[in-house]
Amino acid sequence: MGRALAPLVAIVLLQMFIVVPWAIAYWCVRSGSMPLKHGGRIDRAAAPRQFWMGVWFMAAAGTMFFVLNLCLAWMVVSRSASP
Length: 83
Prior knowledge:
Strand content: 5-15%
Distance between the termini: 19 Å
Shape: elongated
Order of helices and strands: HHEEH
Radius of gyration: 17 Å
């Protein structure tokens, strides 16, 4: 069962919802600014609390989708074969 779970997790379409928030959080930490939806940005030096809250939210969103992906993959792999 373990061998079947790994490829399934790797190719599930929810990967997009995992990688994108983690990539945005990583980019924000590296660049020091968080882009906003309606333009502008939050700079780490000017508003550190809001910046780190945004980075935390993006990382948490990616983690939430990662856990959801694992649960869905586990349900698919562990279902019984129909006769």
